[in-house]
């Protein structure tokens, strides 16, 4: 495929917006479908500022099949981000997660079959592994029971894709198992912007630093880890975005009726306290925090074996934890001091 037209669902969201910037930079034409449930339309203009191109945007919910009829023709591939992603929220509202994450996936697979779109990249997650007995986890590591409805939606999603491919010849799918995406674009123009109180660690830290939250709660101090706090593999969102360009290119060259899965992480595990330490170092601040009990749905520790992504996709993250905390803080400040203020 020459550089083609890619439909990006959830393209104004956190990972989606960074990926759209990378796709445009790589010469793709991008169509965004997003219902703005966890983003806003201002992101579109800021993508234009960074990438120099205003992507075609449709404000639709991909859970609504009829809305998909208005999508343009000649789409060469779909990158399907649109989903809910909070582990803790999914424990509280399981049906919200099953409905949104599974109906949207079913609709997008059917959409591809109807339009004869052969290339599909799926946002999966390291949560499919549950609490793996072996670390780091490889793509061959067995799925343990999911610890949250969110993780279960991704396990079911991957199974659904495998079954669908058996019945629908001609498609190729790449499933990307993200570890913990964090950080923001180096311009400070796009980044993670959760609605309401953040569930994820990094935006909670930056919102505490800017004064929106009193103090960070560190969930769990009795885990079997270096300092008792839970360990995750944080990957810079700009690295993750560039991996999607590699993934869609790889997908287009794959044999038909095939799924390939890749772990996308840095290969390094960091505890919550180590993330706070990095933030304090790069910002020059001191984040107030308190230790509280474990959070429902959280696993103790997980990090990626990145060998397959490196060997097969040629993907090696370029940024480290300090780049993540530095850019996340730059984004939070720019958003609060310039973007939000202008819009209010
Ligand atoms: C990280 C750590 C918390 C908030 C994410 C994504 C999910 C999936 C996996 C990709 C945990 C602790 C958090 C806070 C804290 N990724 N924490 N205080 O749960 O690993 O899930 O990665 O698809 O989509 O959301 O990420 O950022 O919520 O938590 O102590 O206020 O920080 O307990 O150990 P999680 P997270």
Which sequence of SSEs, written as H and E, runs from N to C?
EHEHEHEHHEHEEHEEEHEEHEHH
- Main β-sheet: number of strands, strand sense, barrel status? 7 strands, parallel
N- to C-terminal separation?
44 Å
Approximate shape: globular
- Would you identify the regions where 5 or more consecutive residues have pLDDT less than 50? none
Bound molecules: UDP-4-deoxy-4-formamido-beta-L-arabinopyranose
CATH architecture: 3-Layer(aba) Sandwich
Beta-strand content estimate: 15-25%
Q: What is Rg?
A: 19 Å
CATH homology superfamily name: NAD(P)-binding Rossmann-like Domain
Q: Could you say which structural class the secondary elements and strand pairing correspond to?
A: alpha/beta
> Could you name the CATH class?
Alpha Beta
- DSSP summary: helix tally: 11
The CATH topology turns out to be: Rossmann fold
How many beta-strand runs? 13
Number of domains: 1
Give an overview in words.
The chain has 11 helices and 13 strands. It has helices at residues 14-25, 42-51, 65-68, 87-92, 94-115, 149-167, 201-209, 237-252, 272-283, 307-313, 321-343; strands at 5-9, 29-33, 56-58, 77-80, 119-125, 172-178, 180-182, 216-219, 231-232, 234-236, 258-264, 270-271, 289-292. The strands form 4 sheets. A 7-stranded parallel β-sheet has the order 3-2-1-4-5-6-11, sandwiched between helices. α6 (149-167) links the parallel β5 (119-125) and β6. The protein is globular, with a radius of gyration of 19 Å. The structure holds UDP-4-deoxy-4-formamido-beta-L-arabinopyranose. UDP-4-deoxy-4-formamido-beta-L-arabinopyranose (WQD) binds at residues 85-87, 125-127, 178, 180, 199-201, 204, 216-219, 230, 232, 272, 295, 298.
